[in-house]
């Protein structure tokens, strides 16, 4: 029988109805407990399974000499972890009391005292239990979201795995990592980030059954523990559901935010029984989901680990490649659309390995992971500076060379000093080089980046924002960044002639460039149609296969010798285009 609020903490009374137990019940009700009665002590195990159970009162007389046995059952039950067992009786002898404490009771309340005294003793126990629960809440829960934290999760996984094994069921461990959450924190502030995390926590909790656990591991990582599921399909459906609930925009304050998540799934017992293994495998699968483009889920697969060791090998090879100077730089011209003049070029790294020339797509992700991106980009920077001075010594007119940098290059590696000493060593002006940073780098810690970029600016070094349009640039920051050039990402140029949305976006970026007095470079221009459309919208500079693929330093020297570049495929259509190439 139960009474009162179904969500309240439960107290179990194992006793005959009598004056004492009635007084006990009234006291507990007054303090907001839901009451369960047990009139058959043999059924104690089943009753203990109740999740909200916090207090158990047993009348020793009622137990008929089975008190110690019941205490033992209680002590071995998982519920003992958060529930206090309190014995009630009168005049029991010292040695029996000692064995009761040993068997697991938390307290003994003598009921031969006055009613006032009895109620006071019960209330002390209630208070002590509430304090215990409060401390547990602090220790085992995440303060921001109120969700179980890593400590409690570990405990739950342990129990879930053991239970599933007994019942021939499966446990699903879903690791959710929010995509690009850091950008939200950095651009909109930590308070907005915190509110968003709390909202995500609420949505996740609403998505799983009462038996399952949603925990926060810290940062933007959540775990969803699915207990005793029938098949992996349930985990897949849950993961799909999570992606769907996240896709509904969040309203934080007066702004609408969109966020996606990548989910990795490990199943027990198939993918392991230990917490360490399960978490590691869910993590590997989550990274696969990120690599596959984010906003999706992946089950862990045995060969994922092989791929990890493949990455490890690649990582070692990259170390050697630096030592043995296997990186070469190719250059791609940036052409002024109206005149065909080469007004700049971009330095792009390639890896000369086992007789092949590997493009950056084949190794930069690993270099980002292991930090080698820093020395690799610096090497490209040095080679580019050296190359400018070689070209100049041959009498060539060389425009500025743009070098790509990773976010990591800006973090305590003395980039500014290196740039200064390279300019000095190769007798270059600051304006001979441009640094390309991505939107993500710019927004990583905008205030620090602004300070650093201003110092480069003081040297005359150009700054370009690469892949513009793909990130979260906030206009208020953009205004403060000392940026001279925006590079429209190839993704928007690709379908330019066919897709009017892309055209509108390109137009928006172009007018942004005008407002902030920045040059705009369109990347990945392959066709005359794209070029003429860009020209119509007064896009100044074009970089793409239409004019030239990235080429070796020697071929670039030949391009620099020609007065202007004429796109090969343009010869017939040229008169109809206003490339300005016709005299
Ligand atoms: P990015 O900086 O956006 O460079 C432009 C990429 O687009 C280059 O790819 C270039 O070859 C390619 N591209 C240019 N025009 C066209 C076109 O018309 N059609 C097509 N399909 N592609 C075109 P690449 O050389 O493979 O470089 C890829 C990315 O690797 C670069 O993207 C840049 O983010 C990164 N990267 C290259 N070199 C370095 C480096 O030295 N340091 C760092 N940190 N990153 C680098
Ligand atoms: Mg670039
Ligand atoms: Mg780019």
Descriptive terms for the model:
about 575 residues; alpha/beta; Rossmann fold; Alpha-Beta Plaits; 3 domains; 8-stranded mixed β-barrel; 5-stranded parallel sheet; 21 helices; disordered C terminus; binds magnesium ion
Unreliable stretches: 573-583
The total tally of domains equals: 3
Percent in strands? 15-25%
Q: What's the name of the CATH homologous superfamily of the largest domain?
A: EAL domain
Structural class: alpha/beta
Helix fraction?
40-55%
Strand line-up of the largest beta sheet: 13-14-16-17-18-19-20-21
- The name of the CATH topology of the largest domain is TIM Barrel
Rg from Cα: 34 Å
List the ions, cofactors and other small molecules found in this model: ligand C2E, magnesium ion
Q: In the CATH classification, which architecture of the largest domain applies?
A: Alpha-Beta Barrel
- Please give the largest β-sheet: 8 strands, mixed, barrel
In words, what does this structure look like?
The protein has 21 helices and 21 strands. The longest helix is centred in the first third of the chain and has 26 residues, at about 115-140. The chain has about 575 residues and is α/β, with parallel strands linked by helices. The protein has 3 domains: about 1-140, Response regulator (Rossmann fold); about 150-300, Reverse transcriptase/Diguanylate cyclase domain (Alpha-Beta Plaits); about 310-560, EAL domain (TIM Barrel, Alpha-Beta Barrel), CATH 3.20.20.450. About 45% of the residues lie in helices and about 20% in strands. The chain binds ligand C2E and magnesium ion (2 copies). The site of one magnesium ion (MG) has 5 residues, from strand 18.
């Amino acid at each position: 029988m139960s009474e009162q609020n179904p969500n309240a903490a439960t107290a179990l009374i194992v006793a005959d109805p009598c004056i004492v137990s009635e007084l006990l019940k009234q006291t507990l009700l007054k303090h907001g407990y839901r009451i369960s009665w047990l009139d058959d002590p043999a059924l104690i195990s089943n009753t203990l399974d109740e999740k909200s159970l916090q207090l158990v009162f047993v009348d020793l007389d009622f137990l008929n000499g089975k008190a110690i046995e019941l205490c033992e059952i209680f002590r071995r039950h998982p519920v003992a972890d958060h529930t206090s067992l309190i014995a009630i009786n009168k005049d029991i002898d010292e040695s029996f009391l000692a064995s009761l404490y040993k068997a697991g009771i938390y307290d003994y309340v003598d009921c031969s005292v006055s009613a006032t005294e009895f109620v006071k003793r019960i209330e002390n126990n209630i208070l002590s239990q509430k304090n215990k629960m409060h401390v547990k809440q602090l220790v085992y829960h995440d303060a921001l979201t109120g969700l179980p934290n890593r400590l409690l999760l570990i405990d739950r996984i342990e129990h879930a795995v053991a239970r599933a094994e007994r019942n021939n069921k499966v446990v699903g461990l879903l690791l959710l990592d929010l995509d690009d959450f850091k950008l939200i924190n950095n651009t909109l502030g930590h308070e907005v980030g915190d509110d968003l995390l709390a909202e995500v926590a609420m949505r996740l909790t609403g998505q799983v059954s009462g038996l399952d656990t949603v925990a926060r591991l810290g940062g933007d990582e959540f775990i969803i523990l699915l207990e005793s599921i029938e098949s992996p399909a349930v985990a897949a459906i849950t993961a799909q559901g999570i992606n769907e609930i996240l896709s509904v925009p969040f309203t934080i304050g007066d702004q609408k935010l969109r966020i996606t998540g990548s989910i990795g799934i490990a199943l027990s017992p198939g993918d392991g029984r230990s917490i360490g293994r399960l978490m590691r495998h869910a993590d590997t699968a989550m990274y696969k989901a990120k690599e596959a483009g984010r906003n999706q889920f992946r089950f862990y697969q045995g060969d994922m680990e092989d791929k990890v060791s493949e990455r490890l090998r690649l990582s070692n090879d990259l170390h050697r490649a630096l030592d043995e100077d296997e990186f070469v730089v190719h250059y791609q011209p940036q052409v002024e659309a109206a005149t065909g003049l080469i007004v700049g070029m971009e330095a792009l790294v390639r890896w000369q390995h086992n007789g092949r020339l590997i493009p950056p797509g084949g190794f930069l992700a690993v270099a980002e992971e292991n930090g080698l991106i820093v020395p690799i980009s610096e090497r490209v920077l040095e080679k580019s500076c050296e190359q400018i001075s070689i070209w100049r010594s041959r009498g060539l007119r060389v425009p500025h060379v743009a070098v790509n940098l990773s976010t990591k290059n800006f973090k305590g590696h003395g980039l500014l000093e290196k740039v200064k000493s390279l300019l000095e060593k190769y007798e270059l002006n600051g304006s001979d080089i441009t640094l390309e940073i991505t939107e993500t780098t710019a927004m990583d810690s905008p205030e620090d980046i602004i300070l650093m970029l201003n110092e480069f600016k003081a040297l005359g070094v150009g700054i370009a924002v690469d892949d513009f349009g793909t990130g979260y640039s906030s206009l208020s920051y953009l205004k403060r960044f000392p940026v001279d050039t925006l590079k429209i990402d190839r993704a928007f140029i690709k379908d330019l002639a066919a897709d009017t949305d892309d055209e509108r976006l390109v137009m928006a970026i172009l007018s942004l460039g005008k407002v902030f007095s920045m040059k705009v470079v369109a990347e990945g221009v392959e066709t005359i149609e794209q070029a003429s459309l860009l020209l119509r919208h007064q896009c100044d500079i074009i970089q793409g296969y239409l004019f030239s693929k990235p080429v070796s330093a020697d071929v670039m020297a030949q391009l620099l010798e020609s007065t202007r570049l004429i796109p090969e495929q343009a010869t017939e259509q040229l008169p109809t285009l206003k490339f300005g190439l016709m005299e």
